Amino acid sequence: MKDSSSIEAIRKRATIYARFSTDLQNERSIEDQLSLCQSYAERERLTVVSTYEDRARSGGSVMGREGLLRMFDQARERSFDVVIVEALDRLSRDMEDLAGIHKRLTFLGIEIRAVHEGVVNTVLVGLRGLVGQLYREDNAHKVRRGLAGRVKQGLAGGGLTYGYAPVAGKSGERVVLETEAQVIRRIFQEYVDGRTPREIAHDLNKERVSPPRGRAWNASTINGNVQRGAGILQNELYVGRLVWNKVRMVKDPDSGKRLSRPNPRSDWQIAEVPHLAIVSPELFTAAQQRKGDRSHGHPSHQRRPRRMLSGLLHCGSCGSGMATNGRDKSGRVRIRCSAATESGTCPDAKTFYLDTVETAVLSGLKAELRAPNVLSEYVRTYVEERKRLAATSNAKRQRLEQQLGQLNREIERLVDAIAKGHGDPSILGPRSTALDAKRKRISEELQSEPLALKEVAPHPAILKRYEDQLGRLEGALAKGARAGDGEAAEAIRDLVERVTVFRDPARPGGVAVEIAGRLNALLGEKAYPNHVKGVWGKVVAGEGLEPPTPGL
């Protein structure tokens, strides 16, 4: 007769997983699940060695569920033999995720047991996964239906809009918050009087007026997005009109993040709420009229063709992008940090001359890209890439040839069986036809696949390509690239990913640029920007920093 210690030794190790969905649910839900699973483990003679939990985490995705991910880490180390849950929907309410969890734990030799259903198998996973997902989707439809009903009554459909405060004890009701309403009226009035959203945002930040969200006011906070009907100037609630269902939320299946997608205007739902109006209809209409006029400006005022460094320039002080900021009296183009321009939050608000930065970038590229060690790295990496492509091509041809041989043998067996009367021709015949169609498809794919490369060596084309890139760069310079030549922009983007502009501390008024190259993808981190001397480092410009310009 076995003693208790030997019986204990053969008991399976178990872990318990518990989850509840939202902050609106009772925190005791986790404790109740753990207690229920613990009782089940005792009945089934399982030894609980660990517990994992996720509080206020949706079952619609495995993303962001730290408890579940930690459980998987321990599962890979074979720390337990059984996972106990109250029900399968605690693991996931998504069919794909639940099937994936079951598949991976089964591969590791780990059982899933649900308290009310016992040992989980593939059929149960399929049924519960379908039921869980249908429940989640049906719940979403019911929530939207409920919100639509609330909006018809003039109640909030979700979220809190700047300028309003919730009414305590009355869900969905709002009242005007006068301190913020004054800011809204000021924005509308100043905009109608001719000020730009950028200028208004600057003043609000200087006066330390709290923004709707984030750390600072921006022009985009005021302007918003026409397609989404967002932004203070386009929010019809300020004129007493509640508009709901402008956007819908969808979940990215890869990242688990919720993303907003604009709905067509025909799907928008509108309710009149005159008691929530903050600005007059006349002022609101005047603001919309000005926005319409500004969006259809004269062609000469539209954005100029992209310059060769457009979109590549970044501020060395705060990391924001940089954009053109007018010209001086001699016609030289200035550039300035966008954060300094849009919201006034950059610590270095001074402007640079664009041609100074372009000269530094182009001079640095021309000199460094002709360095022998850079060229050798270029050729070395090219050879390695050719070898990799050759191996991939050879492996694909070998796989296709194996599939073709297997199909030929299977078709021969079917034909032989039909000829000898060993099978029903009405069944074997169509099967043979289907296999023959698949064989033809694979044969065509094999014929289109390049022949296996027998020898990999440096090819003259790579050196020619490299010289062509440098030649294009020099040719663009000769044609006046700094004036916005399209060929120059394309050549620069072949070589450069990011240009960060700094003030050079070693020279009063000096400018330095730091270049990050797209060739990292080709040459690898060992070449750019770490291990090749002088490549993609800081390049000091020959001209100085422009002094601050009053009024900018």
How many domains? The number is: 4
Q: Strand order across the biggest sheet?
A: 2-1-3-4-5
Stretches with pLDDT under 50, minimum 5 residues: 298-305, 520-552
Strand content: 15-25%
Structural Rg:
33 Å
Q: Distance between termini?
A: 92 Å
- The rough form would be described as extended
Estimate the mean pLDDT confidence.
Answer: 76
How many beta strands in the DSSP annotation?
18
Tell me the layout of helices and strands:
Layout: H1 4-9, E1 13-19, H2 28-43, E2 47-54, H3 66-76, E3 82-85, H4 95-107, E4 111-114, E5 118-119, H5 122-152, E6 164-166, E7 174-176, H6 178-192, H7 197-206, H8 219-223, E8 241-244, E9 247-251, E10 258-262, E11 269-272, H9 281-295, E12 313-315, E13 322-327, E14 333-337, H10 338-342, E15 352-353, H11 354-369, H12 372-419, H13 425-448, H14 460-478, H15 486-495, E16 496-504, E17 510-517, H16 520-523, H17 526-531, E18 538-544
Parallel strand pairs: 1-2, 1-3, 3-4, 12-16
Antiparallel strand pairs: 4-5, 6-7, 8-11, 9-10, 13-14, 14-15, 16-17, 17-18
Domain Recombinase: 161-297
Pfam family, one: Recombinase
Coiled coil: 383-417
